[in-house]
Amino acid sequence: MMTTTPHASSSGPIVIAAGGTGGHFFPAEALADILVGRGYRVALMTDARAGKRTSGVFATAEQFILAGAGVAGRGPVRAVKGGLALLRGAREARSIMAKLRPAAVVGFGGYPSVPPLLGARLLPKAARPKIILHEGNAVLGKANAFLARFADGIATSFTSVKGLPSGSNVTLTGMPVRPTITALTGEGYVAPSSNDTIRLLVWGGSLGARVFSDIVPGALAMLPLPLRERVTVTQQVRAEDMERVRTAYEAAGIAAELAPFFSNVAELMRQAHLVIGRAGGSSVAELEVAGRPSILVPLPVAASDEQTANAMALQGVGAAWIVRQPDFTEDALSALLAMMFTDTGILTAAASAAASLARPDAAARLADMVEATLRGQTGGSYSSPVSATPASPLNTAPTVESKL
């Protein structure tokens, strides 16, 4: 791994462009931590939804909140308004960077990355910073697909990424995850024995997914009593659903810890025997680094169905079970859980498979790629061919034979 430490005063800062949900911010913060440790100065360009950061590495960095709004999946009028807001943000970013003179701009996808990277492209060529994209999903996101034509380099989290432009300078780095999750690397997995408590973790994105509140309590209530008595649940639940979910678990006699948000995700992951959740890029990477088996229900309204492609990376090695949301019923989930909880060797094999995909040094790899791009190298030491072929069809009713 590269160890060169630059002189921070020899060039402008590296601008990190990220906003929106934690899935985009976690890898951005992880990269910034590494870069600062190597002597670089960083600045953050983000959106109003994310707002000013008051903790972490960006708290002491220059921060700029730009105009912008998403355009994907909107009606024509809102799409036009969103596009105009992005252009305003790009003009703001260009003006700021003309004074800041950054050495590079690194974008992490989503509409908040468009104004900074487009603004960088609009600078005169002599003053233009290196433009680097990080793609956290197995399908190139719409924002990154638009920006890829300008990019000096694209870092990917998956070995197979659909939609990459032909001839792109692509480096496989992996997805940087939170340091507390990285610390779980190598701790291993111990499946519950026949008398042990079975710990189930249910998460659903930044606000919790209602489908899990609708389905999981009923599915667990259908388990045979000897299994049901051993289960404890930690579940992310929307505030408006809290009372009904709590009542359902109490009626089934199942111990449950419920909250709209958990700050101790790493500890919850360490304790979990099985995780049920969505398949965002950060979530999948955290499951791999922690080495935990999972049941994944891809978000059905994702713009490019990237969550299905993400989940297939785990399913393909036997680390997870994919269930499409229409097939995610109480009956189907209860049967799947009963099978897993009865033969826990299945969980052990899936945990091992998940750990085999982990890239706990992804933040360092990404920082290496940024440094290589600054030096004008095409591809870093972790370059890897990245396939752009479509994902294969899914089996929506997973079985032991088809998944492990």
UniProtKB/TrEMBL annotation:
Residues 200-365 form the Glycosyl transferase family 28 C-terminal domain. Residues 380-404 have a biased composition (Polar residues). Its EC number is 2.4.1.227. Pfam families: Glyco_tran_28_C (PF04101), Glyco_transf_28 (PF03033). The keyword Cell wall biogenesis/degradation applies. One of its GO terms (molecular function) is glycosyltransferase activity. It is found in: Cell membrane. It catalyses: di-trans,octa-cis-undecaprenyl diphospho-N-acetyl-alpha-D-muramoyl-L-alanyl-D-glutamyl-meso-2,6-diaminopimeloyl-D-alanyl-D-alanine + UDP-N-acetyl-alpha-D-glucosamine = di-trans,octa-cis-undecaprenyl diphospho-[N-acetyl-alpha-D-glucosaminyl-(1->4)]-N-acetyl-alpha-D-muramoyl-L-alanyl-D-glutamyl-meso-2,6-diaminopimeloyl-D-alanyl-D-alanine + UDP + H(+). Residues 14-155 form the Glycosyltransferase family 28 N-terminal domain. Gene3D superfamilies: Glycogen Phosphorylase B. Residues 376-404 are annotated as: Disordered. It comes from the Bacteria. UDP-N-acetyl-alpha-D-glucosamine binds at residues 21-23, 137, 178, 206, 307. Keywords: Cell cycle, Cell division, Cell membrane, Cell shape, Cell wall biogenesis/degradation, Glycosyltransferase, Membrane, Peptidoglycan synthesis, Transferase. Pathway: Cell wall biogenesis; peptidoglycan biosynthesis. It is a peripheral membrane protein. InterPro entries: GlcNAc_MurG, Glyco_trans_28_C, GlycoTrans_28_N. Belongs to the glycosyltransferase 28 family. MurG subfamily. Cell wall formation. Catalyzes the transfer of a GlcNAc subunit on undecaprenyl-pyrophosphoryl-MurNAc-pentapeptide (lipid intermediate I) to form undecaprenyl-pyrophosphoryl-MurNAc-(pentapeptide)GlcNAc (lipid intermediate II). HAMAP family: MurG (MF_00033). This is UDP-N-acetylglucosamine--N-acetylmuramyl-(pentapeptide) pyrophosphoryl-undecaprenol N-acetylglucosamine transferase. It comes from Acetobacter conturbans. The gene is murG.
